[in-house]
């Protein structure tokens, strides 16, 4: 894995155009509009499940960051001032975290809500989507394009469903939050 390679958000280009299935049309709205339609939540996060055949792309959080050394799929918070729509936030987060380019949003995998331990009463909603990337679906081709920002992530790899479910793979232990593991396993059951 290339740990020295990274993408600077300031230096990166804006993700280009992408397609989405009709089933995710409700997310093709501005973040302020989505928040108005969903007044029970305080913040919105998105994440992208990228498949390479029967494997899913995972990234490992940096040892010095929040939730250190945990594995996850690429994603993060929607930013109303930066993202045209919720789906554009997905494209931006995928690009910022992996340097991969969103080609198509296929479906919503799931959504979970949880409180923020740092802000009393703040409720996050995290929506996970299955996506295709411009780089294709071949693990080697996608892998050659992955670039991590070492301030946020320190490693990446491809895992099969049984590895995610069992919490073990060739690199050792796969540590996830419970909701992240559930989202990834749900994505495998397509």
CATH homologous superfamily designation: Nucleoside Triphosphate Pyrophosphohydrolase
CATH architecture: Alpha-Beta Complex
Structural class label: alpha+beta
The CATH topology comes to: Nucleoside Triphosphate Pyrophosphohydrolase
Radius of gyration: 16 Å
Poorly predicted tracts of residues: 1-13
Distance between the ends? 28 Å
Count the E strands: 10
What's the average pLDDT? 91
Shape: globular
Strand fraction? 25-35%
- Count of domains: 1
Oligomer: single chain
CATH class: Alpha Beta
Provide the helix percentage. 10-25%
Order of helices and strands: EHEEEEHEEHEHEEH
Biggest β-sheet: count, sense, barrel?
8 strands, mixed
Number of helical elements? 5
Protein described:
With about 190 residues, the protein is of the alpha+beta class. It has one domain (about 20-190): Nucleoside Triphosphate Pyrophosphohydrolase (Alpha-Beta Complex). The protein contains five helices and ten strands, in the order βαββββαββαβαββα. The chain has helices at about 30-35, 85-100, 140-145, 160-165, 180-190, and strands spanning about 20, 45-50, 55-60, 70, 75, 100-115, 120-135, 155-160, 170, 170-175. Strands 1, 2, 3, 4, 5, 6, 7 and 8 form an eight-stranded mixed β-sheet that branches. The protein has a two-stranded antiparallel sheet with strand order 9-10. The chain is globular, with a radius of gyration of 16 Å. The two termini are about 30 Å apart.
């Amino acid at each position: 894995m290339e740990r020295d390679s990274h993408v600077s958000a300031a230096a990166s280009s804006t993700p280009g155009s992408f397609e989405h299935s009709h089933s995710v049309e409700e997310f093709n709205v501005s973040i302020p509009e989505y928040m108005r339609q969903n007044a029970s939540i305080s913040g919105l996060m998105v994440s992208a499940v990228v498949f390479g055949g029967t494997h899913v792309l995972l990234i490992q959080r940096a040892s010095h960051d929040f939730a250190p050394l945990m594995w996850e799929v690429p994603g993060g918070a929607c930013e109303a001032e930066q993202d045209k729509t919720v789906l554009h936030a997905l494209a931006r987060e995928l690009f910022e975290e992996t340097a991969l380019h969103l080609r198509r949003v296929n479906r919503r995998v799931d959504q979970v809500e949880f409180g923020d331990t740092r802000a009393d009463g703040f409720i996050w909603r995290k929506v996970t989507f299955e996506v295709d990337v411009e780089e294709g679906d071949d693990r080697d081709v996608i892998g050659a394009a992955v670039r991590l920002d070492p301030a946020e992530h320190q490693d990446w790899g491809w895992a099969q469903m049984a590895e995610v479910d069992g919490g073990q793979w060739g690199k050792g232990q796969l540590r996830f939050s419970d909701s992240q593991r559930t989202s990834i396993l749900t994505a495998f059951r397509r």
